[in-house]
Please model this.
Amino acid sequence: LQETGVMDLLRSGKYEFLDRDSVSEDKEKREIMIKAFKSDYYLCSANAITENGEILLLDGSGNRAAAVTFGP
Model:
């Protein structure tokens, strides 16, 4: 997303972009992750896609896996 310019587009002000990398405190990051779970759209990547078409998500905090399986 960084290399394609998508991150610049999201940060341009045209969108309400919930960017957890824009804050340094863990409490603020957690608040952004909770808001992102309730958002209209959630962009993320997969760690792998198997030959059978299964998507593999490894997630340290659980926010990505939760958003993909249950969220926006």
